[in-house]
Specification:
The protein has 18 helices and 2 strands. It is mainly α. The protein has a single domain, classed as Growth Hormone, Chain: A (Up-down Bundle). Strands 1-2 form a two-stranded antiparallel sheet. A hairpin with a 6-residue loop joins strand 1 and strand 2. Helix 4 packs parallel to helix 6, helix 6 runs antiparallel to helix 17 and helix 12 runs antiparallel to helix 13. The longest helix has 30 residues. It is globular and about 65 Å long. It starts with 7 loop residues before the first helix and ends in a 10-residue tail after the last helix. The mean pLDDT is 86.
Length: 456
């Protein structure tokens, strides 16, 4: 079937639901470590409490990908039912998360939240390949990078905005110690998660299966046992994995190990390096939590501002070259964090949420490199992969490709929990430094990936 060339706004509409999904991810990236600490977790316990994301991704995404490949509803389509179910689960977890009374209640809700996000996100990757011709793949995946940056930015800045507007004070907390501004950020995220997905579902039709696909789906259905068929599809796809996919394994390993180091320990790193404390009951730690959101929001601003600029660059030097350069810049940025501060003012910007101006200090410098790397991580590997996988197995391969994200995260959690954190002197600053070194290693391994430049 020849696919129609979609307009910019059609591609915008189909990917708009990605905004809500990433708003949800942004909230957990900037707030979960702090929430765990407010509920009594120690620094050394934080990695294992992040286990929900990678494990749900490991179990859910390949299965959802394989099932969605064989799904078709005349009313709802192929991928869109999964968007809706995932968004509903995520929204429920976001509403209840700030009311957590114990560490394990928060951890349980994080499992539900990540399950919902993974159910919704995996079919979104396949959605691009379903809807767009190959020459528009770059724009489709970079549109997702744009919405990732925008959604995460607003998620990260929401608590600081609420405080700046005077709606809440930094010291306003709930009975469990979690700041009130954090609760409202999660409530806003719940609305964004479901509303944006519904918009995409209502504005974007899906292509029906071809007669050949209908015949294959009917044959598979006649065999029965959808879970066995799904398992078989995943195993066969792994055995027949394209060369490019294999070459991307070390790239994905180092980059996602690095990002988990960063997300887990940024708040503690800032609290220690800027305020000389790791005590969650101090104003310094609370300031570090708010600053974490502002810095993560800033690198996501860089991400969505530069996402579309990477399209012509990828056409000129290739997705591989772009990814190499971006990861080197990101790794360098993380290595600089311990040497930056909040006292050296670079410039001032008008305060959009109050009077006066906001000082931009040297600590924001690292977000330039990380923002560029993040935009590339969310698009270039998928562009490298998209042209090498068979159309009828797009969903299952995109799900398997997610294993290259979640397995490094699981490895990071257990290695960090049981020996790496101690090996690094039980110092969160050194964990972030390790993340920087691993981003650079991921960039170097990118140079060994084969790339089809026929569409450039």
């Amino acid at each position: 079937m020849k696919k129609a060339k979609l307009s910019f706004w059609q591609i915008w509409n189909m990917n708009f639901g990605f905004f809500g999904i990433q708003f949800s991810f942004g909230l957990q990236q900037s707030n979960m470590s702090a929430i765990y600490k407010y509920l009594g977790a120690s620094e050394s316990e934080i990695p294992i409490l992040w286990l929900a994301g990678p494990v749900t991704g490991l179990l859910i995404q390949p299965i959802v990908g394989a099932i969605s490949d064989g799904t078709w509803s005349p009313k709802f389509g192929r991928r869109k039912p999964f968007f809706l179910v995932g968004a509903i689960l995520a929204s429920i977890a976001l509403v209840f998360m700030p009311f957590s009374q114990t560490i394990w209640m928060a951890a349980g809700l994080l499992w539900i939240l990540d399950a919902g996000n993974n159910i919704a996100m995996e079919p979104y990757r396949a959605f691009v390949s379903d809807k767009l011709e190959k020459k528009q793949h770059s724009l489709g995946f970079l549109m997702q990078s744009f919405f990732t940056g925008l959604g995460s930015t607003l998620a990260n800045f929401t608590p600081a905005i609420l405080i700046s507007l005077g709606v809440f004070a930094l010291s306003d907390t709930m009975g469990n110690g979690i700041p009130v501004a954090t609760y409202w950020a999660f409530f806003i995220g719940a609305f964004a998660s479901i509303a944006t997905v519904v918009y995409s579902v209502l504005t974007t039709p899906e292509y029906p299966p071809t007669p050949e696909e209908f015949e294959r789906m009917a044959l598979e259905k006649a065999k029965g046992n959808v879970f066995y068929r799904t398992y078989k599809d995943v195993v066969e796809a792994i055995k027949e994995m394209p060369l490019v996919m294999k070459q991307l394994i070390p790239v994905k390993f180092f980059t996602w190990y690095a990002m988990f180091c960063y997300w887990q320990y940024l708040t503690s790193t800032l609290s220690l390096s800027l305020f000389d404390t790791l005590d969650q009951n101090t104003d310094g730690f609370k300031q570090a939590q708010v600053l974490t959101g502002q810095l993560n929001g800033t690198y996501n601003i860089i991400c969505f501002m530069l996402a579309f600029a990477l399209v012509p660059l990828a056409l000129k030097i290739g997705a591989k070259g772009v990814h190499f350069l971006c990861l080197i810049l990101g790794g360098t940025g993380l290595l600089l964090i311990p040497y930056l501060n909040i006292t050296d003012v670079l410039f001032h910007i008008p305060n959009p949420f109050g009077e006066g101006s906001v000082a931009i200090t040297s600590i924001y410098l690292y977000t330039l490199g990380l923002g560029v790397a993040w935009a590339s991580m969310l698009s270039m590997p998928y562009q490298l992969l998209a042209g090498s996988i068979p159309k009828e197995k797009t969903g299952v391969y995109m799900g398997i490709f997610n294993l290259f994200i979640v397995i490094p995260m699981i490895i990071q959690i257990f290695t960090m929990q049981y020996f790496v954190y101690d090996f690094l002197g039980s110092n969160p600053i050194n964990v972030v430094r390790l993340g920087g070194a691993f981003l650079i290693l991921g960039g170097l391994f990118t140079l060994f990936v084969s790339e089809d430049r026929s569409l450039a």
